[in-house]
Amino acid sequence: MKTLSDSTCKREILGRIRQVSAGSPRRWGRMNAAQMICHLNDSFLCVMGEKPVSIDPNFRARKFVKWVGLEAPFRWPRGVRTRPEVDQFVRGTPPGEFEDDRDRLLSLIERFTTQPRDFEVAPHPIFLEMNEREWMRWGYLHTDHHLRQFGV
After folding, report:
1. Which segments of the chain have a pLDDT < 50?
2. Greatest pairwise CA separation for the chain in angstroms
3. pLDDT at position 79, please?
4. Kind and range of the H or E element at 41?
5. Rounded to an integer, what distance in angstroms lies between the CA atom of residue 146 and that of residue 152?
6. Rounded Cα gap, residues 25 and 73, in angstroms
7. pLDDT, tens digit (0-9, with 9 covering 90-100), for 84-118
8. Which among 10, 66, 83, 98 could disulfide-bond with 127, CB atoms 3.0 to 4.6 Å apart, if both were Cys?
9. What percent of the chain has a predicted confidence (pLDDT) above 70?
C-alpha cells in the first residue's frame, strides 16, 4: 500500500504536484487546479491543527468507512462531499498566486511527514482518531485522488 512514509511514494507525489499548472484541465468535479491545490493545503492544515474543521456528529459507520477509505483496494469515488472548511465553494481558502500555493503544499507535505512532528495531529473530520500509518496512508490517498482529478 502506498503511503507518504515511504520515501519513493512521497517523491512520486511531490513530483506529480510539481506537474500541476494553473491551466491543468480537470477530468471531473468542479474545482480548477488552483482550487484543488488550496483544498489540499486546507486539508493538511486541518489535520495539523492549524485550521479549524468541523466534525460531522451525524456521520455513521465511521470505522467501516475509515477501513474502506484507507484499506480497500480501489480508488476513492468521485463527488464525495467534504467539510465546509475545506470546500472551495463554501469556506475553503481562496487561491492566491498559483506557484506560491503549490510551494506551500509541497512544504506542508514535507512538514506532515517529518518526525518528530512540530504539531499535534487533530482528529480527521470523518475518520476521527488515526494512528501514524493511517495518517500517512490518508495523506497519500487524498493527494493522489486530487492529482488524478487533474490527470497527473
Report:
1. none
2. 39
3. 81
4. helix 33-47
5. 9
6. 27
7. 999 999 999 999 999 999 999 999 999 999 999 99
8. 66
9. 100
Asked if 88 and 32 count as a contact pair (C-beta separation under 8 A), the reply is no
Say if residues 50 and 108 touch (Cβ distance below 8 Å).
Answer: no
Phi, psi dihedral angles at 29 (to 5 degrees)? 85, -175
Inter-helix orientation angle 98-113/132-149, to 10°:
160
CB-based contact 47:54 (threshold 8 Å): no
The tally of CA atoms less than 13 A away on the side-chain side of residue 103 is 5
**Nearest 5°: CA angle at 67, between 113 and 12?**
35
Which residues are paired to 124 by β-bridges?
128
- How many residues make up the chain in this entry? 152
Q: How many CA atoms lie within 13 A of 86 on its CB side?
A: 25
Residue type, 125: P
* Nearest to 145, CA basis, from 75, 92, 43: 75
